[in-house]
UniProtKB/TrEMBL annotation:
The lineage of its organism: Bacteria, Bacillati, Bacillota, Bacilli, Bacillales. It comes from the Bacteria. Residues 2-91 form the DUF3846 domain. This is DUF3846 domain-containing protein. It holds the Pfam family DUF3846.
Length: 100
């Protein structure tokens, strides 16, 4: 089990323990892609690219200096496959708060 952080549009983010990548697919409503933000070192974002332009905007990210949007649900995971720590969750919360 690993601890991840789930953010759905217009909802508060929450921590969740998951056992496998099938759960990631369920959380993002289908096939997923892993992206990153320049400001979240060591943390990846799991998103469903099929949501692009279909589901409501979630928040913007900057990847390799380029601005993009995360659409639909997003799951924050530790890039190395380990559980997110409390410090990681605090960093994500600060990141999300700056996007409001």
């Amino acid at each position: 089990m690993i601890t991840v952080y789930v953010k759905r549009p217009h909802e508060e983010a929450y921590k969740m323990d998951i056992a496998n990548s099938d759960t990631l697919s369920e959380l993002v409503d289908g096939d997923f892609e892993v992206v990153s933000d320049d400001n979240l070192d060591g943390i990846s974002l799991v998103v469903n690219e099929d949501s692009r332009g279909v589901l409501a905007n979630n928040f913007p990210i900057t990847s390799d200096g380029y601005l993009d949007w995360v659409y639909g649900p997003c799951v924050f995971v530790k890039a190395d496959g380990h559980s997110l720590s409390d410090a990681d969750v605090e960093l994500i919360n600060q990141f999300l708060a700056a996007k409001v």
